[in-house]
Design goal:
This protein has 151 residues and is mostly beta strands. It contains 1 helix and 8 strands, in the order E-E-E-E-E-E-E-H-E. The strands form 3 sheets. The chain has a 4-stranded parallel β-sheet, with helices on one face. The protein has a two-stranded parallel sheet with strand order 1-3. Strands 2-4 form a two-stranded parallel ribbon. Helix 1 links the parallel strand 7 and strand 8.
Amino acid sequence: GENGVVETNTSGSGLFSYLTNIESLDLSKLDTSYMTSMSYMFYNSSGLKELDLSNFDTSSVTQMNSMFSGCSSIAELDLSNFTPRTLNLADNLFYGCSSLRLLDIRNIDFSNAWPFSVFDGMPSDATIYVMDDWNKNWIDSNYDFANVIVP
């Protein structure tokens, strides 16, 4: 693509899964504006310690199930720029992210997703920034995290 930009098709499923020996990725030139599915995108990438996804365009994404499942070395994830319009599949999204203590998902609405096991395996002392009171109450009623915050 232009200026070294790599355009994706509609599915990013499994694109960066099983990265066990890579600690970080530069995805600043990845155009995700056409993606509708990011399911399993970083699945079981236990080697990843940091991930900058600030350029990701998630406006067309409807499926994010198991996207970060098994990313056991990531301590912080800022997904504040993630704005999926209608997320309908988010099962196991952060399942097994056992080091994840700071998570910003303030623009992701789970109310249409009917998600299960989204945060299973995350540390209970994690701080999670969420969109609104509905999302906070849903998390608080299903999990026992120290800080679920509506900014």
